[in-house]
Amino acid sequence: MKPRDSSKTTVTIRDVAKMSGFSASTVSIVLNNAPLARYIPPQTKARIQKAAKSLGYFPNVFAKSLRSKRNHTVGVMVFDITDPYCTPILRGIENSLYQASYLQILADAHNERGRFERYLEMLLERRIEGLIVLANWLYLDINLLADIERGKIPTVIIGRELESDATSSVIVDDEAGAYGALSHLYGLGHRKIAFVRGPKALSSSKARWRGVQRFAKDTDLELDARLIVDLPDQLNPNVGVDDGFRMTDELLKRKRPFTALMAYDDMTAFGALRALAKAGIKVPGNCSVVGFDDINPSQLFVPALTTVRQPMEAMGAAAVVIVNDAITAAAEARSFGAIHRKLAAELVIRESTRAVPDKSS
Amino acid sequence: MKPRDSSKTTVTIRDVAKMSGFSASTVSIVLNNAPLARYIPPQTKARIQKAAKSLGYFPNVFAKSLRSKRNHTVGVMVFDITDPYCTPILRGIENSLYQASYLQILADAHNERGRFERYLEMLLERRIEGLIVLANWLYLDINLLADIERGKIPTVIIGRELESDATSSVIVDDEAGAYGALSHLYGLGHRKIAFVRGPKALSSSKARWRGVQRFAKDTDLELDARLIVDLPDQLNPNVGVDDGFRMTDELLKRKRPFTALMAYDDMTAFGALRALAKAGIKVPGNCSVVGFDDINPSQLFVPALTTVRQPMEAMGAAAVVIVNDAITAAAEARSFGAIHRKLAAELVIRESTRAVPDKSS
DNA sequence: CCATTATAGCGAATCGTTTCAATAAAACAA
DNA sequence: TTGTTTTATTGAAACGATTCGCTATAATGG
User: Which residue of B81, B105, B267 is in closest CB contact with A105?
Assistant: First the structure.
């Protein structure tokens, strides 16, 4: 005897049709509130709804997507989820996606190229409707871009502006942010300022330094080359701390006095803080420190870190707006050019910066 | 005239069939290396592969899943992704999932019940093959459990052991962890130890306290009620710092001396660190502090926090092993009981704890 | 040389929806 | 009354893949 147990695993639209006494077509029309539902009398609707509910029916998304070619799913590719910089952006993405009732498939490339490609392929296979790439830190090379464009899928990159203009992007105004941070230190009376610059390969690194230079020029502040060190090129964002520590240590060894230190980012600043503590230099008593990013731990630190805040949730949200627009454009067969958004950073003044002690006293 | 442009958006198996000169059936058999492929001569295979490649064909997952009822996707529901405790677990989950070539749909409940339910529904609609719930912090009530069980989907909960035994779980051995932490302090000579306990509603809170009590009993250590405070029940994990600060502040006001403080978790410890700093108490010079969890910022702190490390990546991996086993069991129509794994925590000794100063000196 | 058996490939049904075109009754207009 | 429109409902054809069962040739064995 065949199992034929009553617990028919899946209840289909035909089951609902049978129970309600109408055809599958009608059930579909009612349940989706399709245009034709206009002609369906309320009582019919009610009976169908009731049958559907009592059977616990919900439509099979695969069948649905197979016809409609839509699946309300976007891919989110991060390069390293353990980077604290990611999390708020992910929150921003998630939140906006949820509002638009999209679901996200999360892929983490671990900063590995092969993994990125494999994931990209898997995502493409799933026929995601859009793709958001969170390019924190990794030196995103151009071939990856080509891979993405091959997919012909609406894509936004957060954190990196590609040379080619074809893919949308959301970035923060690094230059203005750095300008503001330095301006803050300057306003507190600091003149001997040390810099731990970011890895040269990073575009944000360059942009932040441009901000510094511009401010220096605007105010005739002298940038002492002996007070400038660079973070090595490095794939793992989480060792930024160690590098920051090491570079600051080296800076200290130069015996060149400074009253403030501007770090490439918060992680670097944490490392610097540790190096300064080790050298017996009090922050902010003897030296002010400013970071960049405002990742979560920065406000926790003692002293809490003065830093330049990236509007990370907003960046995530902005990315979603762009993909969403692109997706609807595609659905309506409109063409849709790439969009580039640059969001403003905001200086957050906390405890790690203080006016330079008055020399006269 | 119809558009009929050559850029036929999607290339189907039939296109491959046409190009290679075989039928769709054969193409399917070859491309999936199905049992029947045994009979297909190598040259035929080669021709089909070539055609597929040259057309850039990849199968439509919807059509595929529609038949096979499998889609290699699991849902991952977190309660708050901005909680730093989440990230390493997510990494562990992602990594294991990737190995098994599963993709994950990430849902973030924001600690809101309605959002949890909505997401659960969406995930069920997608017919995810398994579900991993990351129950950090939220007081997961029993109704949610019922919701999950309704779905009949292999589920694992990380971080919470449900009363009902029906759903698998992965938790950490809180009691032993707390026991070890206290033992560490005791070994350093501390006898007047303050405690900032976690919210009473949290099961981990209770378990950790049990560990403390057990150790106290084992060693006749006296637990001074005036040195014990409780964190308020509170939904947002990120304000644990503020609560930790406030409670430590209050503790300090009691003027009851102590040489060490054991915090419910790292966030609380950060708050305590800040309160102690404010009161001019040096850590670890005048007071040792120990946390729990070992979230990312803990090692960054100055002083770096001594804490009890939860093996978060391993927990994520363990969860994946369980769902994976459950899924294959289900696929083979075997029954599969709930599994409960309790992982050991590990004491990580850093800079925030030190031997109590010798009184004789 | 005929009966098997292995080899190669195909046609058609199926998965669960949506949607177009068709039908038919009812309502309306002339 | 007849012809047209509106209202209600449905059958059948996709969507793109997998798979069972069938045919047909080639190889094998006696």
Answer: B105
